[in-house]
Amino acid sequence: MDIAFAAETLVSLLSALPLTLELAITAIAFGAVLALALALARLSGILALDWFARLYVFVFRGTPLLVQIFLIYYGLSQFGAVRHSIFWPVLREPYWCAVLALMLNTAAYASEIIRGGLLSVPHGQVEAARACGMPRFMIFRRIVMPLAIRQALPGYGNEMISMVKATSLASIITLMEITGVAAKIISETYRVIEVFVVAGAIYLAINFLLTRLIAFVEYQLSPHQRQLLPMTGRLKGESH
Amino acid sequence: MSNPGFLDIISFGPDGWGHALAAGAWMTILIALAGFAIGSVIGTLGAWAKISGGRFLRMFADAYTTILRGIPDLLVIYLFYFGGSAVVTAVGQFFGAEGFVSFPGFLAGTLAVGVTSGAQQTEVFRGAFRAVHPGELEAATACGMGRVLKFRRITAPLTLRHALPGLGNVWQVVLKESALVSVTGVVELLRQAQIGAGSTSLPFDFYFIAAMIYLAISTVSGACLNASERWFSRGVRRG
Fold first, then answer.
1. A51 CB near a chain B CB, below 8 Å?
2. Is A171–B74 a contact, with Cβ atoms under 8 angstroms apart?
3. Of B34, B38, B6, which is closest to residue B21 (Cα–Cα)?
4. Which of B155, B160, B163 is nearest to B133 (CA)?
5. Does the CA dihedral B194-B199-B201-B205 come out positive or negative?
6. Nearest-neighbour CA in chain A from B25: distance (Å)
7. What's the whole-number mean pLDDT along residues B86-115?
8. Does B150 touch chain A (CB under 8 A)?
9. Are A200 and B71 a contacting pair at CB < 8 A?
10. Is pTM beyond 0.95 here?
11. Which of A4, A20, A13, A11 is nearest to A196 (CA)?
12. What are the angstrom distances between the C-alpha of A198 and each of A4, A202, B73, B82?
């Protein structure tokens, strides 16, 4: 391994880091909103919405992400109606096509995770909230959602990590994020090992920080499961 | 440039792309199967290293699974494709060949898919082995079975039964990952669709058909896996 070359590679790959993060964060953020909508559609009890969400999840989980990216980036331009619509300035850009594909894809996986979280909320909690006189939306905002998020977080963390990894596919539609730059350097210099090690280390670092972050949020959200601090002094009323 | 309709594309006639797409789908299945097979060999060894290996082996297996699950599959495919080519070129130059020799894409692709799925299968097998009741293994030892006999008759079948749902998930991932092998130029389903899209300028039709074929393969294989799961768990009481 050539340390000087590896350091040089690190500098050029780090300049591509913002794009990777931007792709991942945008896709995860938009995807989460869509996923919540899909999960609620599945649980809504309205047959049409339920079947739409089922079909959506089935199609997006059953086909490779790369095919979805190609369908959006190359496929949509086949139709004149798309090319002349107001969406064309957006759909022409590889960046927004990649974000759109990643977002639609992650929404399918995340909706199942969120649905699992929503289903895991004990019925008694909802009943108690109703008994307190909370309206439906308030029950959802104050009781169901926080409990469901806590439950879904570990699964959602895995999905976020696979999204970070999935941003690498954006390089195939010409976006120069980390993998794109790495492939360019490899094809220019034929020094595979150095580039692979440096690029891999960057991805590992991102995913390591992401795991720590999720573990921290999980810790914050579950004060009831933490070990009690040792009591100092006596409790009131137990002095005899 | 011809402009065929949707049905013309999927027909098996002289102008249709049916044969080409079917061949592509077959190649996709081959890549996925080969990659999955390599992965299960690696997974078995990895799980063995993690369960009963020494400190060094365990550390090595831990590093392998952590790294391979933390970096993109595309990067691994590039590593094998370009890395393989670099090695083959070096060997070729040693024997007096001129210029760049490229590594076969199929081999690079299956190795890459195998190594990434091997990391997932390591975890699947390890978890499945943990689910085997230690009493059953003890009973086998008490019956006087040797190590190999015990592994063949007791450990392997019980572990496999517990591993089946996890292996099904890994298979679905492998099938979708095989689409990435198209970057090495292997004419599998997605690459074939790209070729078709390029020569007819109907990208949507071709990628849509490819997506439907992927969906069909994953649905059929998923159903088979479910059926085998039921079959192999027929001795287990549920609930």
1. no
2. yes
3. B6
4. B155
5. negative
6. 13
7. 86
8. no
9. yes
10. no
11. A13
12. 12, 6, 15, 16
A87: number of Cβ within 10 Å = 12
Q: Inform me whether the C-beta atom of residue B41 falls under 8 Å from chain A C-beta atoms.
A: no
B chain contacts of residue A66, beta-carbon cutoff 8 Å: 179-180, 182, 190
What confidence tens digit (pLDDT) does each residue in B58-91 have? 999 999 999 999 999 999 999 999 888 888 888 8
> How many Cβ pairs closer than 8 A exist between chain A and B?
115
d(CA B55, CA A4): 33
Record: contact A168-B75, CB cut-off 8 A: yes
Q: Confirm or reject contact between B188 and chain A (CB < 8 A).
A: no
Asked if B70 lies within 8 A of A59 by C-beta distance, the reply is no
- pLDDT attached to residue A235: 58
- DSSP character string of chain B: -----HHHHH--STT-SHHHHHHHHHHHHHHHHHHHHHHHHHHHHHHHHHHH--HHHHHHHHHHHHHHHHS-HHHHHHHHHHHHHHHHHHHHHHTT--S--PPPHHHHHHHHHHHHHHHHHHHHHHHHHHHS-HHHHHHHHHTT--HHHHIIIIIHHHHHHHHHHHHHHHHHHHHHHGGGGGGGT---HHHHHHHHHHHHS-HHHHHHHHHHHHHHHHHHHHHHHHHHHHHHTTTS---
Q: Is A179 on the interface with B (CB under 8 A)?
A: yes
